[in-house]
Amino acid sequence: MKLGFGLMRLPKVEGTQDIDVEHTKRMVDAFIQAGGKYFDTAYVYQGSEEATKAALCDRYPRESYYLASKLNAAEFACKSEEQAKNEIHVSLQRSGAGYFDFYLLHALGEGNKAKYDEYGLWDYVRKLKDEGLIRHYGFSFHDSPELLDELLTAHPDVEFVQLQINYSDWDDHLIASQRCYEVATKHGKPVVVMEPVKGGTLANPPQKVKDILLGARPDASFASWAIRFVASLPNVMMVLSGMSDMEQMTDNLSYMTRFQPLSDEEQQVVERAREALHQSNDIPCTACHYCTPGCPMEIHIPEVFSVMNVYKRYGDLKAARNDYGWRPGGNKASECLKCGQCEEACPQHLPIISLLEEVAQTLE
Predict the structure, then answer these.
(1) CA–CA distance, 264 with 307 (Å, rounded to integer)
(2) How many helices (H) and strands (E) are present in the chain, helices listed first?
(3) For the chain, which end, N or C, has fewer CB atoms within 10 Å of the first or last residue's CB respectively?
(4) Parallel, antiparallel or unpaired: strands 66-71 and 3-6
């Protein structure tokens, strides 16, 4: 099955930020019973590796699943080469996995690639493979096709790449999903897809997009169009869905267990949906939360943008201001110090500072 279980957005205990481990166990059980095997976590996914231990590694034979994790060299994750190289040992201790089937250098881009070189992490993951702590190594990537080509040329032994691909970003000039996919294919590297539903936004697109998709297939979920689009690409070996509850799991399994690629007619529907979506002015935040750990004012940036997007889609200023008053938590957008750490961490390259100013002017 091409569907992988992304363990980044696990269900939370109501009223807290704690992962609901019992709910996660039920999701893991459903996934495995349907034939799923691929699970994806990371050192920087707060609580995820511990939840993975409780829900998966402690409950299933190690050879019955594949587990991926990641090494992040960004300053918010580590302050030195020693700390960077120790991440895998922390991850193995948290997860109890014994080894990782797939291990990734995390979120490579122009702004951080020098750290991976400075710390010798390319050679380090090769050493980990020789030692048997990992089975396959690759990297996840958020940048230009030109840089991707440069990295794959410099490191031809990379076994796979993880790319942000979805129908919204397919022809986006910044994310450049299609061009990055084509670069990976040129180098003969299979692709693991992240953000196929763009942080959940394609599961609840603007109404004009909904109308197009419902008109074509009223029985299909909006998320199914997004996930089937990327799963239909021939060089995609796995599609990670960051499922947050059993309802999402059930929906994903309903069309991925017996996967059928998009037909030519369905591809045309997706193209129309993309065109309609690009007429929207949503903030294209995927809620990865890479921006939040280093925020000195503890602004919950993705949650702030989520509320703003509701206003942008539906135009109900009163409701948006009401939501903004309590839903994001943390400090308001106007508290931003403009230090810029969030923009350095953002894999979507969003102008976060100016977007926060727009939120403050609109909703405060």
Answers:
(1) 36
(2) 15, 8
(3) C
(4) unpaired
Predicted confidence (pLDDT) per residue in 147-198, tens digit: 999 999 999 999 999 999 999 999 887 789 999 999 999 999 999 999 999 8
| Per-residue model confidence (pLDDT) at position 314 | 65
Per-residue pLDDT at 363: 95
344 in helix, strand or coil? helix
**Do you know the residue count of the chain?**
364
pLDDT digits (tens, 9 = 90+) for 125-134: 999 999 999 9
CA distances (Å), origin 160, targets 5, 140, 205, 232, 294: 17, 9, 30, 18, 30
Residue whose C-alpha is closest to residue 195's, from 166, 171, 223: 166
Cα 202 to Cα 257: distance, rounded to the nearest angstrom: 21
Asked whether 161 and 186 are in contact (CB, 8 A), the reply is no
CA 117 to chain centre: 24
Distance CA 349, CA 302 (A): 14
Whether the CB-CB separation of 192 and 161 falls below 8 Å is answered with yes
Q: Residue 157: how many CA atoms within 13 Å on its side-chain side?
A: 8
* Residue 316 pLDDT > 80: no
What do you get for the CA distance between the two ends of the chain, in Å?
46
Give the pair of three-digit tokens for residue 25.
Answer: 């166990």
The H or E element containing residue 319 is helix 317-324
pTM above 0.70, yes or no: yes
Q: What is the mean pLDDT of residues 300-315?
A: 85
The amino acid present at 232, given as its one-letter code, is S
Structure tokens at 93: 């201790």
